[in-house]
Fold this sequence. Notes:
The protein has 547 residues and is α/β, with parallel strands linked by helices. The chain has helices spanning 3-6, 28-39, 56-59, 80-85, 95-108, 198-210, 234-242, 244-252, 274-287, 304-321, 325-331, 349-352, 399-402, 414-417, 451-471, 481-496, 526-538, and strands at residues 18-24, 44-47, 115-116, 121-127, 132-137, 142-150, 172-175, 190-194, 213-218, 224-226, 344-346, 358-362, 368-371, 375-378, 382-384, 387-390, 405-407, 436-438, 477-479, 544-546. It has a domain at 3-157 and 396-476 and 523-546: FAD/NAD(P)-binding domain (3-Layer(bba) Sandwich), CATH 3.50.50.60.
Amino acid sequence: MSGEDRLNRPGPARGAGAYDVIVVGAGLAGLYALHRLRGLGARTLVLEAADGVGGTWYWNRYPGARCDVESVFYSYSFSPELQQEWQWTERYAGQPEILRYLEHVADRFDLRRDIRLNTRVTAAHYDEAAGGWRIRTHDGTTLTASYCVMATGCLSRSQSPGLEGLDDFGGSVHRTARWPHEGVDFSGRRVAVIGTGSSAIQAIPLIADQAARLTVFQRTPNFSLPARNRPLDPAELTRVKKRYPHLRELARNSAFGVPQAPDTPSGSALAASPEERAARYGAAWDAGSLFGFSDTYSDLITDESANETAGDYVRARIREAIRDPATADRLTPRHHPFGTKRLCLDSGYYDTFNRSHVALVDLRSSPLVRVTRNSIVTTADEHRVDSIVLATGFDAMTGALLALDIRGRAGRTLRAAWANGPRTYLGLAVAGFPNLFLITGPGSPSVLSNMIVSIEQHVDWIADAIQWLSRRAAVSLEAADEAETAWTAHVDALSAATLLPRAASWWTGANVAGKPRVFMPYPGGLKSYRDTCDAVADDGYRGFIVT
Ligand code: NA7
């Protein structure tokens, strides 16, 4: 029996422009979704706004763009052959290498024939009579599908700082999230970087290498740990490849989606002596990993005093890296508990501020006022610049979804459904929007985990659900209101038991004016989340209405 015969097709009539599944986005999630759904025999089409595959890794080409999860684990696990063939060259792969990998995946699995590039989806409306989705694209084309999968990415809608006068600036303006593909040469230029999040922290050392003068405009100092990136020794890579089955299993069953011994972390930071703490924190600092500190003590993210011990350790290490005490003081993070904003990994970030042509402007004491033709004005000074780099972040997790005109039953918009913040069942589905699936949506571990592991889990779950429905000749799967309410309350309760909502972070929507302040990702860990999703499926899709 061919794959095509295996899927029973409910929903809209067949014909040109009619699909079983339309996937929006050809990044990490869209590529795997296409491969997996095609394997079921589902007629699947991926629509992608860019002129290439890769999603986040297609757009974010700023200097120093690099993954913060080790390459050998920030890679697909679905194909043993692929993971044996691909040769990662660095511990933390840079953007060009990750994009090459994704292009290779698209070719190797013959995905391109079902990906329509340069096609921006503008609307997705549920058609109750037909029992499926009508998807409209920028050129007015309408396509139909029984299921719609939003693989639109958590960090794909970039944020503008809304700076007065920016449009009249006479020099060049670049966004880290939309970097020119041909690169930018800053040689001899006076460059301003606005923002000190992960993107800026990666880009600043490299921009400083080129620029005649670099001025960094910082609103909130971040906690950044040394990445300790290095070339991957082929023998080490071979060792990992031999152990892949075991390591992938550990990653799938861990809290963050990276291999972690099941018994870590243990004990309270407050029960340890200062010497024991210093030893553990020192090891975490030396590990060069986003997850190093989460392996130290179990209460860093739940107990303020325990958190302070780790925060103090990292603050001391940051201070000792910077020669000028005033600059060190301004770069020391004090506005949020350690780890309550996305930690950053850097390669020489703090040391860059020891260079004589690099300056730091503290926007808390002297906020931005406007941009003129050739300068940036704060309440304290005017800074002459030739180029401005905006590293001002994203309307995360909900931004890309709400940018589309998504309508469910009775024409209700997703914007209306989420007016007070995103509500989902398992981060996968929304009540009133049958057969619409979100990949790494709000309410799922998503950005708190190794994204690719979460993506594989979501895509597998969705594919299994579609197959299950098909076997029952069911036409739709829809989150029940009560299940959605209970799940949203559960995610809230989990985050309320931690220090996470304390920070004005993009995890809470605080970086976007007017965005409801809700801690969006599921903070209970990937393992417990996966177990819940599996139990829901095993229980006949408990909490879903099956029609
Ligand atoms: P982030 O982490 O959201 O960082 C954005 C930075 O821009 C952050 O320092 C912001 O300060 C700053 N910002 C934002 N708006 C303004 C205005 N209007 N004026 C001054 N400064 C501003 O985005 P990234 O792209 O660096 O990283 C996103 C994720 O990508 C990252 O976490 C990884 O997962 C990969 P604030 O902290 O809000 O005071």
